[in-house]
Amino acid sequence: MSTAPIPGTGEGSAPEAARTPSRLRELVPALAGLAVGAAALVLSMQIPEGNRLTQFSPRWWPEGLALLLMGLSLLHAGLSWARPRALEAPEEATRAGAVRLVAILAAILGYGVLWYFVDFRVSTAVLFAGLTYIGGGRGWKALLIFPVITTAVLYLLFGVLLRVPL
Fold first, then answer.
1. Are 77 and 34 in contact (CB under 8 A)?
2. Considering the entire predicted model, what is its pTM?
């Protein structure tokens, strides 16, 4: 009878110290969120105020989102630093995951280009269908109904109710 190591138990694999994630690795998402929030805050400060001091200015919403992102990133950093270390590191990055990440970023970049030439409703529905496909969604409901309903909700919220020019 052979005594092969059981997958996932740690037997016959790297020492525990090598499998335990470092604190820095746990802080990377929080630091990235903090950097994106700070960049968004700096960019939102460049939006002109306008003459109406009695109402919210055009920069209120982007500033609020940037500050919220920065606050949540700091909370994430504090919680990940305070909690006990995980016993195991996350799984290693795979080629398929990297390809999926690059495809998502390319779809978002393509959305920005497409929106320049095509209406918001069309380009947003195409983006959601593409992101759903990249994320593993298959079938007509996931690739047609979900993007159309989500785009309609966004258009009604921002285009109709809030009167944001889309």
1. yes
2. 0.60
The identity of residue 53, as a single letter, is L
CA atoms lying within 13 Å on the CB side of residue 121: 9
Q: Which long-range contacts (CB under 8 A, 24 or more apart) does 100-105 make?
A: 100/134, 100/135, 103/134, 104/131, 104/134
Task: For residue 68, give every residue at least 6 positions away whose Cβ sits within 8 Å of its Cβ, in sequence order, or none.
Answer: 37
Report d(CA 143, CA 129) in Å as an integer: 5
Place of tokens 């989500």: 150
**How far apart, in Å, are the Cα atoms of 8 and each of 3, 13, 124?**
15, 9, 42
| Per-residue pLDDT band at 153 (split at 50, 70, 90) | very high
Please report, as a single letter, which amino acid is at residue 50.
G
Q: Mind listing the pLDDT tens digit for each residue in 101-110?
A: 999 999 999 9
Are the C-beta atoms of residues 21 and 85 closer than 8 Å to each other?
Answer: yes
Euclidean distance between CA atoms 162 and 165, whole angstroms: 9
Using one digit for the tens of pLDDT, what is the confidence trace for 12-61? 455 555 555 567 777 888 999 999 999 999 999 888 876 665 566 778 88
